[in-house]
Amino acid sequence: MTMTIINYLGNKAVQINGYTVSYNEFGPRAGTISAQNNTDKATWAWVVANKQLIINTIVAAQAEAKAEEASRIAATVEFIVGGYEMHHVSVDTRKDLEEQFATIARRFPNDCTPASVKADYEETIGKKEAAAAAEKAKEIATLQNKIETAEKKGRIRATQAEVTSARRAYNNLHNEGGEGFVLAFYTQAKIDEMKARLAELTASTAPTKANIMTRAWEIARAAFAKFGGNVRAFFAQSLKLAWAESR
User: Fold this and answer.
1) Over the stretch 41-83, which tens digit does the pLDDT of each residue have?
2) For residue 71, how far is the Cα from the chain centroid?
3) What are the CA-CA distances from residue 45 to residues 24, 39, 41, 221 (Å)?
């Protein structure tokens, strides 16, 4: 018999001979399958005989749907466009951006053009990249401080049991066994893990379109702050300067 994957009550199910068969993933009937009450005997017998195949098919379809939804969310960029009136819009970066910019401009012809929508999008991306860069710099500084302090102050131990013992000894000495501030001690394995993460964060990478765009908006905003006018008016030249810096 042929199984066709369908959407059923917010989840995936299969149709077999026109009957809907679903998988009970949670609740008191978890691990079982359900079929429409009027399923004919031959179809139900096939369903029972192929229960695991049906479950595997439905579970795989649900996993694929969840992965697709996660991809869609990750690829969606929300931003504000407008002139006299402002509008909340979004684009899917997996699809043709220029076409989406044009579609948005057609929806709000009195407030934006494809070019202005693109500029608003790029400014939003620039801000997101700047925020990510700041978060990355913060993580780098934190890791560097922890590693340097642990190495210089002798707060590295071979095992977790030794770390626990060192913390207990410090607490007993400085807090008289009560509750209070206790210095951070680390296992060598934890220090190695932090060093690996630090190396990953600080590894030199070739300039990407995203960070060049971020730099371009930084230059444009600096020019705007100095000369006034409209920040977008400085973007074209700022982009050239950002590209030049990256080479």
Assistant:
1) 899 899 999 999 999 999 999 999 988 898 889 889 999 998 8
2) 9
3) 19, 10, 6, 70
47 class by beta-carbon count within 10 Å (0-12 exposed, 13-18 middle, 19+ buried): buried
What angle (nearest 5°) sits at the alpha carbon of residue 223, between those of residues 220 and 229? 95
Highest mean pLDDT among 22-26, 177-181, 193-197, 227-231: 193-197
- Which pLDDT score, from 0 to 100, does residue 208 have? 62
Q: Which of 243, 189, 188, 183 is nearest to 215 (CA)?
A: 243
127 lies in a domain?
Answer: no
pLDDT at res. 209: 62
Enumerate residues 6+ apart whose C-beta is below 8 A from 19: 35, 36, 38, 39, 40, 43
d(CA 136, CA 212): 17
Residue 80 lies in a domain: no
Structure tokens at 1: 């018999």
Contact between 216 and 181 under an 8 Å Cβ cutoff? The reply is no
Query: How far apart, in whole angstroms, are the C-alpha atoms of residue 212 and residue 240?
Result: 10
Residue numbers of the domain that contains 224: 205-247
Q: What is d(CA 166, CA 162) in angstroms, rounded to the nearest whole number?
A: 6
Residues 215, 181: one domain? no
* β-bridge mates for residue 12, sequence order: 7
